[in-house]
Specification:
The complex is a heterodimer of chains A (340) and B (365). Chain A is α+β, with helices and mostly antiparallel strands. Chain A has helices at 2-17, 26-35, 137-144, 169-184, 205-214, 229-232, 254-266, 283-286, 314-327; strands spanning 42-44, 50-54, 60-66, 71-77, 83-88, 100-103, 108-113, 130-133, 150-153, 158-160, 163-166, 191-197, 218-226, 242-247, 250-251, 272-275, 295-304, 310-313. Chain A contains 9 helices and 18 strands. Chain B starts with 10 loop residues before the first helix and ends with a helix. Classes of the chains: A alpha+beta (340), B alpha+beta (365). The interface between A and B is medium-sized, with 30 and 22 residues.
Chain lengths: 340, 365
């Protein structure tokens, strides 16, 4: 499956660098749209999701990965010309400190932190004390940092041996594996809908409305899962895609899980189990759409760096894409689960 | 009915609506006042299952009504179907128990700062009986107690009844209490109760006095202050193409606030929302509103991002998604007995929504 690897190697850096904080996904939307050329009709829905439809005769299958990445919004510009911010997304404030923030108009600023005097090194970062330095003094800053401007971490992805090291892997890694899978997949057994969701970081807002519009019968969510010894048990980076059993607001549906398991066996992809309490994916919104949707999460294991960057293994990306491609040709169980 | 020209902001609506009692879940009096104000002007009017008031107006005079759930292309050519929404409910209190000595125990409905409760006069129960949140005078309090905020569990409303039996003659458990405030005018300033969001209700009632240039469903929603509930249900039924929520929002211009912390300011025009806890406003819709404002020289300001939440958050997530925005009148002292607003901001908001509707007919989608 060299083609999958070369797809990911060429797409992922572009996706990582694209501008796309929650609610302002313009850059990443354009990048994904370009990468999907020739794969079917694409539209942007009312919630800002990018929706690809490959009509087919089977049940409606929804594939979803979120395209937004955590960002910041300027709440005010103080007398010294420093932008004050509120965080968009579930990311820890400390992970933003020292990053370069990119704005939609191409402007940049450094995100700094006024560490309170006497605070301990390990003390939690108070997001009220974050500031944006644009380097243009107090009057210039007012023109460059406007209240309401939305910024994203400017990513400089690194490849270290087998590992990708980047700030926006959650969930640009999922987006890239979906695109690679779609490019590699044979004719699906499903009426296939793919959404790259918007505003996931703000509570799966895009996924909720996107799934409502599609009314799927089965759903597969591809997301990044941070490995944490205390929480996620033995799951490890480099040991294959994880099948999500439980998250906040989600437990795997047996019918959907069965498709993923059979696809993994058929594609000879080694999978791991993952249970996570604190992180959650779009699955919580999609599985509760309309009268309910059998849903399974396929998670790419990632390691935190403690700062902005996460680490994922190139082999896990390849295997995740292979698994997803195979899911598209794996029949749904007929006895229960789907509505067809 | 006039066409094409922006309607005037009707201050009498603000005074009537502001003075009516309507704590979340008990909006009947406000709803009755809104019905009186708009019934002659709209093509249809109904109360939905949760109690929200829903009115349809069509540019063609109701011959093709924007029926709930129908998209605009089937009802009004290519013009988008717009939902305008303002919430009728206000924050207040609810009686939870009546002590044997006739004092009323109560809890807050919606967000009220406990510090402002002591000494406050509330109108309670079906007869609007006045009662005061009792406290010992400073003479009888220790120095330490004078500095403390009394927890709500220790507060009570004294309606002057001497016994439980006497109190039960006019008050029942579950009765609401509202602030007792008289509407007043000083120059451009207006003082009144529940400007959050009776000013939005009055703006919306003023707007429907003229026939809109596109199909409009006007919703006066219930239970916003306790979790944006009425609008969520209404939006699902209305299924609009886009939505604008009209609000009274917290003005930040108080002494001691730094200039960059005082936005939005009373008297500086309608406040536009980029983002709050419930919503990322639709960027295209906000741009269009800003454009309409600039073209018609209506001053606007930004609401501070990251705080608060409105019905727009729920409307945006209804069905397959609805592009939504919020336009607010900055009010000082909301969620407290008496709010202030600048009447010019209310007038400008009517003008801005009207010009936005006109722009939408040409520039949306």
């Amino acid at each position: 499956m060299r083609s999958i690897t070369s797809s990911i190697d060429s797409i992922l850096p572009v996706f990582l660098a694209a501008y796309g904080p929650p609610g302002r996904e313009s850059g990443i939307r354009a990048a994904i749209k370009r990468s999907l050329r020739g794969l079917g009709p694409i539209r942007e829905d009312a919630g800002g999701n990018l929706h690809l439809h490959r009509p087919g005769r089977g049940p409606r299958l929804l594939l979803a990965a979120h395209m937004d990445a955590a960002g910041v919004i300027v709440t005010r510009v103080d007398a010294a010309g420093l932008g004050r911010v509120s965080l968009l997304g579930a990311r820890n404030a400390s992970e933003f400190v020292g990053t370069t923030i990119l704005f939609e108009d191409g402007g940049r600023a450094l995100l700094g932190y006024d560490r309170p005097r006497g605070s301990k090194d390990g003390a939690e970062v108070d997001s009220d004390l974050l500031f944006l330095e644009s380097g243009h003094g107090s009057s210039g800053a007012r023109r460059r940092l406007s209240v309401g401007a939305v910024g994203a971490i400017e990513d400089r992805p690194l490849r270290l041996g087998d590992l990708w090291c980047a700030a926006n892997l959650d969930d640009r890694a999922g987006c890239a594996t979906l695109v690679a899978a779609l490019r590699a997949a044979r004719a699906p057994r499903y009426d296939l809908h793919v959404i790259f969701t918007a505003q996931s970081e703000l509570g799966s807002r895009g996924a909720a409305t996107g799934a409502f519009g599609i009314d799927p019968e089965i759903a597969v969510v591809v997301d990044l899962a941070h490995i944490d010894e205390k929480e996620t048990g033995s799951a490890a980076v480099g040991k294959g895609p994880c099948l999500g059993l439980k998250e906040d607001g989600y437990v795997a549906h047996p019918a959907a899980l069965s498709i993923a398991k059979r696809a993994a066996a058929a594609a000879r992809v080694k999978t791991q189990w993952i249970i996570r309490e604190r992180e959650a994916s779009d699955a919580r919104a999609i599985r509760a759409t309309r009268t309910g949707v059998p849903t399974v999460v396929v998670a790419i294991p990632a390691k935190r760096s403690g700062g902005a960057a996460s680490l994922v293994h190139a082999k896990d990306l390849n295997q995740t894409a292979q698994l997803v491609a195979r899911i598209l040709t794996t029949p749904a169980a007929t006895s229960r689960g789907g509505r067809s | 009915m006039s066409r094409g020209k922006a309607p005037a902001f009707e201050e009498r609506f603000l005074e009537t609506f502001s003075s009516a009692a309507g704590v979340s879940g008990g909006e009947e009096s406000v709803r009755a006042a809104v019905v009186d104000a708009v019934r002659e002007r709209v093509d249809s009017l109904e109360v939905d299952s949760m109690g929200s008031l829903v009115a349809h107006l069509h540019p063609d005079g109701g011959r093709y009504r924007a029926k709930p759930g129908r998209r605009a292309q089937r009802t009004g050519g290519r013009k988008p179907h717009l939902m305008l929404c303002a919430h009728m409910d206000e924050v207040g209190v609810m009686v939870t128990a009546i002590d044997k000595d006739g004092l009323l125990r109560f809890r807050k409905v919606g967000g009220i700062d406990t510090r402002i409760l002591v000494g406050q006069v509330f109108r309670v129960g079906r007869d609007g009986l006045r009662g005061v949140v009792g406290t010992l005078p400073p003479h009888l309090l220790s120095r330490a107690d004078r500095e403390k905020v009394t927890p709500i569990e220790d507060l009570y409303i004294d309606i002057g009844a001497a016994s439980r039996e006497e109190a039960q003659g006019s008050v029942s458990i579950g009765d609401y209490g509202t602030f007792d405030t008289i509407y007043e005018r000083w120059g451009q300033t207006r003082k009144g109760k529940a400007f959050d969001d009776r000013v939005g209700c009055a703006i919306l009632a003023s707007l429907v006095q003229s026939r809109p240039p596109l199909p409009v469903t006007a919703v006066w929603s219930v239970q916003e202050e306790v979790g944006l509930r009425g609008a969520a249900a209404a939006a699902r039924r209305v299924a609009p193409d886009l939505a604008i929520v009209l609000e009274g929002t917290a003005a930040g211009d108080a002494p001691g606030q730094k200039p960059d912390e005082s936005a939005p300011m009373m008297g500086h025009g309608p406040a536009l929302t980029v983002q709050d806890r419930s919503l990322m406003a639709n960027a295209r819709l906000v741009d269009l509103i800003e454009r309409a404002a600039r073209r018609h020289k209506i001053p606007t300001q930004w609401k501070r991002p990251g705080i608060g939440g409105t019905d727009a958050g729920r409307i945006a997530l209804s069905g397959a998604g609805v592009p939504a925005a919020v336009i607010s009148v900055p009010c000082r002292y909301i969620h407290a007995p008496a709010a202030y607003l600048d009447i010019r901001d209310a007038r400008r908001t009517v003008e801005l929504v009207w010009q936005t509707m006109t722009t939408l007919t040409k520039e949306w989608p």
